[in-house]
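User: My collaborator sent over this chain with a note saying "see what the structure looks like." That's all I know about it. Can you take a look?
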Amino acid sequence: MTLTKTGQDLHLMKIAFREFYFNYGNKVEEPSKIQNREFGLMSLDGVMKRHLKFSSLGGLFASLILETPSDVFASNALYDFPVLPISEKGWRGADLIFDIDLKDLDLKCRQSHSFRTCLSCSSSYLSGSDESCPKCSSNSFAESILPCDKCIKGLKNEVAKLHSFLTSDIGISSEKIITYFSGNNGFHIHVLDESFNDLNSQARADLAGYIMGIGILAEVIGAWKDTRSDFRVRFPLGGLDYGWRKRISDRLGISITSQKKLSNMIKELGGLEQFRKRVAEITKEMGVRIDSQVTTDVHRVFRMPGTLNGKSGLTKILCADLNSFDPFDESCQISSREVSVKIMLPKMKLRLKGQRFNLTEGVVHVPMFVGVYLISKGLAHAMDSNP
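Assistant: Without extra context I'll predict from the sequence alone. Here is the result:
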């Protein structure tokens, strides 16, 4: 569910976003074959306009200043007629893009910095502390996350795993893989190899399933059902030196000469079915936790690099060096001038643009980038005194 922002909230965000595009609009990345892309603009009050076309980045820039959207999207697909309905656009292929989002990672730290805002009385509270609103008992709420450094580390680990799959298993050159911080709670990985653009949704689903480790069977490394006994071990003719065969065998500590060792391992686990469960556990752990629906959708619109994310006020930005990249610093590009906001939580901590903030409930004076960040997440409201 989505929070309704106050008039003051929208006013402050419009000032901040318009100022950003005046200062940084030239850093918005132009997609290839821009005239064949569908564009979408989300207004600050949540109304989406799709099926738009821009023949140049200059035309888009003019709309960013004039309309000041909260979010700017371009299609992964190329079309003959981008402004027409989906069935009439004339699909000409789509970029292969992956999404790794915090919601798909089972991180222990998440519970300590996930918050709910009641849609009935607007009070905010820590997720998990109460099933319903502690003030009005409503079960209707919006949830937001203030990612911590552990969250970013977990996301980076998944990005690194995905890069490994794409290069070693799929054979994509590392120069053709571009990583962006999404501007909120995740990363987008764009594949610039056009040989994948013609893949249909089913082919992309198969690729996503492989990367996630879905449906990888014990037979892959040579454990087979036998009609005369519970199982038999017969290693594949191609060996165990690549793909999931190598990952699983390395984890189990076996090689092509370990037939007896694998047989004993299966027996010790209690038979073939238990071994299959063990293989499933390994593939789930070693697979990449991507959002498969994002990958399989060949008509999706994606946030444009260099634009603001309306859920945070941070920028979708290129991540040139995954290890050193700090999203709380590099993607925080909104003005630092002081604004007044009302904090809705008893207390919270966050780090943005090289500064740490310990905030308590009530009216506080903070840099605009902090105010916009918290307003975007429903954890603060702008005050009348702001410009």
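A starting point for your reply to your collaborator: The chain has two domains: 7-104+147-208+291-382, 218-286.
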